[in-house]
Amino acid sequence: MNALFKPLHLKLLLGVFLLFFVLGMTALYAVKIEFHSFENKAQEKLYLQLIAELRCVKCQNQNLAESNAELAKDMREKAYELIIKGGSRDDVVNYMTARYGDFVLYKPPFKMQTLLLWVGPPIFLFLSLLMLFRLIRNQKNQPIEKLSETDRDSVRDLLTSNKEK
Amino acid sequence: MKFFIPLIAFVALIGLMLFGLNNDPKLIPSPFIGQSAPQFELPRLYKPEQTISVDDMKGKVWILNLWASWCVSCRAEHAVLTRLINKEKIPTVGLNYKDYGTEDYGDDAVQWLSSLGNPYYAVAVDTKGMAGIDWGVVGVPETFLMDKKGIVRYKFTGPVYQKAVDETLIPLIKKLREEEG
To answer: What is the rounded average pLDDT of the residues A1-15?
Structure first.
């Protein structure tokens, strides 16, 4: 009985530990960003949306909200400043792209240069689905090879010789 | 045919990876090339009661160099940059980016320049780093070259090195000087 329960206990303990670990990390995450007050909910929502969508150019795999780089902090500050002054979403995005190019957007605009970026994945999905479909169809049409009498004998020999051991 | 499809896919993948190897994601193409230089008007390091602005440089081929005393690679490029400035006699504005101790315009930046030499025509002090953002700074040092009309013609990201000075910057400066203002 004891032996049965032990691993379960361990797993539970590990699970609880992991849960607290992850929770602790998100808590750390949350305090990193400066506190800003907004005039209304719409502005706050816009700000939070934008810092999630704009990319930190210094640490390129993070958005502005996640990054604690000095530059990301300044860019957040600038976005906040523009929003507080009554700037719209486009104002902030235009300000950033005028300085850092489309690079700063995690959601790049659809144009000639970014065509492959937008069209590429659906094309690949289509092609791979096509290949999968053809593969499955070909499999069905493949004739089942009939065993010859000699093959049958050799299989039988193998099976019986195994048994004797 | 069955043999060729994987081969083609393999070659394409290798090609893509080679392209990726030669493609530094840190070099973000500056959207300012061919555009007029972003404005700033900032206090000067040695004369805080005076300001230096982009307009002050109009009519000349000039360089803007973003640097900071806390930036290690700025220290590395300083000698190369000084040599370029002295050789070409090109007016260069140093934009001192978010330097510590510049609250009252002093200390680190001044010490840095007095020990390494000051090749700059003027040093603009950008304490908050907002002029830096206006110029699309990613990380100091960054060096911009402007023509006589005040249009940004070239950007160098990272510390300038002698080969880039000799092969790119100097020929470009000579070319821009021949253009009409």
So the answer is: 63
| Whether A57 contacts chain B with CB within 8 A | yes
Task: Check pLDDT > 50 for residue B85.
Answer: yes
Per-domain boundaries in chain A: 39-109, 112-164
CB contact under 8 A, B25 and A60: yes
Amino acid identity of residue B163, one-letter, is K
- Mark yes or no for CB contact A99/B135 under 8 Å: yes
Q: Which candidate from B98, B136, B139 shows the least CB-CB separation from A99?
A: B136
Domain A39-109, CATH number (from 1.10.8.640, 2.40.50.140, 3.65.10.10, 3.40.50.1820): 1.10.8.640
Predicted structure pTM score: 0.73
Using CA atoms, how far apart are residues B167 and A25, in angstroms rounded to an integer? Answer: 49
Nearest CA in chain A to B31: A101
Question: How far, rounded to the nearest angstrom, does the alpha carbon of residue B85 sit from its chain's CA centroid?
Answer: 13
CB contact under 8 A, B133 and A97: no
Rounded to two decimals, the ipTM of the complex is: 0.77
Residue B127: both structure tokens together:
């304490």
Give residue for tokens 């000639």: A112
